[in-house]
């Protein structure tokens, strides 16, 4: 079995780590791998590379899973195994070719973002940092298409539908939280929300955390799904 581990400090495998899921045809000595691993090391965790996922008990120690997309088509990339992994953990596709990866399909499969082949180190760092902060790393058009598909999949609500918010539930959200939720559903990143609402990034994070708790959402995708289910029914203005 192929396995490598990289670290620029004394972190043990039991500590939080980045995990790169590679495959037999991958060239782990390539420039793309070398640059990616160096960027990951700057973020302060051990980097483990393997062709097989760790045991379930060890997966809780992984800060982020990166799936190598080279020589794979989109259906193989978003396999049942990857979907199950992405449902519980942060997953990024990397080494991606624009001709073989569908961002909307990846997003609907709970993948948090895509890093394209030959991306410069600063882009890799920005994408990785964003996902680690709980944001998505996709183009806005892919986010818009995915959310439009989710809206279309929601059945038309009836007056007595269980998904209608009561006044009490609606009043739990502050006006600012509603504005933040709307922007997240539109695919905005924290910096965009801060600029749009003229507030600090720290304040944006505070509103998002509060919205997570009030809507029982675990991440931005679930919060956006929540908004998309309720925006046609109640006004979030």
Written description of the protein model:
The chain has twelve helices and six strands. It has two domains: 3-138, Response regulator (Rossmann fold, 3-Layer(aba) Sandwich); 147-230, Winged helix-like DNA-binding domain superfamily/Winged helix DNA-binding domain (Arc Repressor Mutant, subunit A, Orthogonal Bundle), CATH 1.10.10.10. Strands 1-3-2-4-5-6 form a six-stranded mixed beta sheet, with helices on both faces. It has 237 residues and is an alpha/beta fold.
CATH architecture descriptor text of the largest domain: 3-Layer(aba) Sandwich
Within CATH, the superfamily of the largest domain carries the name Response regulator
Biggest sheet features? 6 strands, mixed
Order of helices and strands: EEHEHEHHEHEHHHHHHH
Strand order of the largest sheet: 1-3-2-4-5-6
Q: Roughly what percent helix? A: 40-55%
Shape: globular
In short:
The protein is of the alpha/beta class. It folds into two domains: 3-138, Rossmann fold; 147-230, Winged helix-like DNA-binding domain superfamily/Winged helix DNA-binding domain (Arc Repressor Mutant, subunit A, Orthogonal Bundle). It is built from twelve helices and six strands.
Write the layout of secondary structure elements.
Elements: E1 3-6, E2 17-21, H1 31-42, E3 46-50, H2 56-59, E4 62-68, H3 74-77, H4 80-88, E5 91-96, H5 103-108, E6 113-116, H6 121-132, H7 140-153, H8 167-171, H9 175-185, H10 190-197, H11 201-215, H12 220-230
């Amino acid at each position: 079995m192929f396995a490598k581990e990289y670290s620029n400090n004394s972190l043990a495998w039991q500590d939080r780590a980045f995990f790169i899921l590679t495959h037999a045809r991958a060239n782990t000595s390539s420039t793309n791998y070398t640059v990616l691993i160096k960027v990951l090391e700057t973020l302060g965790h051990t980097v483990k590379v393997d062709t097989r996922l760790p045991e379930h008990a060890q997966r809780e120690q992984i800060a982020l899973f990166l799936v190598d997309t080279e020589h794979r088509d989109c259906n193989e990339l978003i396999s049942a195994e990857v979907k199950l992994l992405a449902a519980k953990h942060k997953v990024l596709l990397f080494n991606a070719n624009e001709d073989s990866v569908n961002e909307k399909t990846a997003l609907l499969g709970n993948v948090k973002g895509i890093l394209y082949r030959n991306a410069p180190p600063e882009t890799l760092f920005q994408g990785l940092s964003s996902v680690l902060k709980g944001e998505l790393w996709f183009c806005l058009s892919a986010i818009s298409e995915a959310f439009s598909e989710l809206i279309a999949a929601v059945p038309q609500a009836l007056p007595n539908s269980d998904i209608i918010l009561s006044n009490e539930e609606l009043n739990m959200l502050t006006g600012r939280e509603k504005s933040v939720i709307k922007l997240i559903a539109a695919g905005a990143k924290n910096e965009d929300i801060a600029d749009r609402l003229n507030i600090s990034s720290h304040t944006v994070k505070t509103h998002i955390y509060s919205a997570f708790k009030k809507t029982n959402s675990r991440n931005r995708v679930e919060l956006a799904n929540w908004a998309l289910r309720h925006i046609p029914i109640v006004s979030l203005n």
